[in-house]
Amino acid sequence: MDSIRIRGGRPLKGIIPISGAKNAALPLMTACLLTGETLTLANLPHLVDITTMANLLMSLGVSLHMKSNERGDGCGGRILDLSTPMITDTTAHYDLVRKMRASILVLGPVLARTGQARVSLPGGCAIGARPVDLHLKALEQMGASISIEGGYVDARVEGRLKGAHLVFPQVTVTGTENLLMAATLADGETIIDNAAREPEVSDLAHCLVAMGAEIEGIGSSRLVVQGKESLHGATYSVLPDRIEAGSYAVAAAITRGSVLLQHADATQMSALLKVLTAAGVVVSVQEDGILVSADTAPIRGVDVMTEPHPGFPTDMQAQVMALFATAEGASMVTETIFENRFMHVPELKRMGADINIHNGSAIVRGVPRLSGAPVMATDLRASMSLVLAGLAAEGETTVTRVYHLDRGYERLEQKLAACGAEIERVRG
Ligand code: EPZ
């Protein structure tokens, strides 16, 4: 099991290229199941989750042709052709689904295309139970009959799904994406109220429109879809990863450095940038990215509450907590989306952070210096939080179980080392 070793205390200076968004690429890849023609996706990041999704899609009958990026280094910006003339298997098996919860995103498209789908229940993960009940209830409203047998969701519909007026009682990102894809091939009009407004949902909607879908209200909490008999192929480029960009913005801030986040789109990150600015970080939007500097004024703690987009993203909570652990003053970090997303706290405390959890909130009191220590990654964003703390800490930090990181951060060590970080991967 690989680990990452960091010697902290060096301000980051330089440019970090931001890759395509993991949480856009995954639903975009499943959209290929909706058509017999070829969907070409560009700017794909090179991540374990993308490979897992590719393997799952191939098991359903999708043929894939990966072309390297213009740099030819097989990393960021890869181009992938996905063709599904016929879905040859309508079952997404447990051994693949258990590796990645986002596999549930094949349920809507396979059911809409073939009238049946059998998908292993994804199960929980470190941050929460992660139920999919809202996905299933909405599909039932569109005429599907759903049963749970042996840990699998079994969904069937006679003929086509029927358009319906869906109201999500709670905002669900992949729930919105699953139902949006299903609605594009349904018979009639589907309204999705309380739809997720994350940029990745809008990216999927724009791609579906390029494939011939009729969708109104993109970016709003009400999506209106006129179902079609079929969709056609398209070429679409994945939007930049706002969570990767935000994570490296914190890297610049926590090391009191100055980094250009190349390709980052500030319009997708306003809640985070507002918090960083309030904390004393200097954020300036450039032609092709965002310059983040913290090499002048002190960094102050700021209160943060996670909310669905356009609120502060839960996927950035662990990272900003690491920043506040080294800031002046105190901050209260409240997590409202997931029930167990403070797994980074005990590890940060091992590095000298002063954090106390009260139910869904953590009180963080900044300390002058964190100290390096061996720490353990538990989930994707918690792992990044520990890397960020290690960049600022005095001495050496070793983060184990970095397979979590490889799911969501492409070439992490290379991108940070290029800005002066003393960081290396230790093969385990
Ligand atoms: C997506 O997960 C993201 N994953 C997550 O990113 C992200 O943290 C999350 O949205 C919230 O923004 C992908 O896009 C692949 P939800 P998702 O459905 O769709 C409850 C990362 O780090 N809920 O919006 O699974 C659920 O328990 C990952 O990149 C139900 O109760 O999240 C949670 O409390 C982590 N029933 C809340 O809603 C349901 O049927 C939001 O979950 C569905 C969700």
What is the CA-atom radius of gyration, in angstroms? 21 Å
Gross geometry:
elongated
Count of helical regions: 14
**Main β-sheet, spatial strand arrangement:** 22-23-1-24
Measured between the Cα atoms of the first and last residue, the distance is: 4 Å
Residue-averaged pLDDT, rounded?
Answer: 95
**Structure class:** alpha/beta
Largest sheet features: 4 strands, mixed
- What molecules are bound to this protein? ligand EPZ
Beta-strand content estimate = 25-35%
Helix content: 25-40%
Total number of β-strand segments?
24
Low-confidence sequence ranges: none
Commentary on this structure:
With 428 residues, this protein is an alpha/beta fold. 30% of the residues lie in helices and 26% in strands. The chain has 14 helices and 24 strands. The strands form 6 sheets. Strands 22-23-1-24 form a 4-stranded mixed sheet. Strands 2-15-17-16 form a 4-stranded mixed sheet. A 4-stranded mixed sheet has the order 4-5-3-14, covered by helices on one side. Strand 22 (374-376), helix 12 (380-392) and strand 23 form a beta-alpha-beta unit. Helix 1 (22-30) runs parallel beside helix 7 (199-210). The longest helix has 13 residues, at 48-60. It is elongated. The protein starts with a strand and ends with a strand. The model has no long low-confidence stretch (mean pLDDT 95). Bound molecules: ligand EPZ. Residues 23, 26, 102, 128, 130-135, 170, 172-175, 314-315, 337-338, 380-381, 408 line the site of ligand EPZ.
Walk me through the topology.
Elements (H helix, E strand, L loop, with lengths): L2 E5 L5 E5 L4 H9 L7 E7 L3 H13 L2 E5 L10 E6 L7 E2 L1 H4 L9 H8 L1 E5 L12 H9 L3 E5 L2 E5 L8 E3 L5 H12 L4 E5 L5 H12 L3 E3 L5 E5 L7 E4 L4 H13 L3 E5 L7 H9 L3 E5 L2 E5 L10 E2 L11 H9 L4 E5 L9 H7 L3 E5 L2 E5 L8 E3 L3 H13 L3 E5 L2 H4 L5 H6 L4 E5 L2
Parallel strand pairs: 2-15, 3-14, 6-7, 10-11, 18-19, 22-23
Antiparallel strand pairs: 1-23, 1-24, 3-5, 4-5, 7-9, 8-9, 11-13, 12-13, 15-17, 16-17, 19-21, 20-21
Helix pairs in contact: 1-2, 1-7, 4-6, 5-6, 6-7, 8-10, 8-12, 10-12
The structure holds ligand EPZ.
The site of ligand EPZ has 22 residues, from helix 1, helix 5, helix 6 and helix 12.
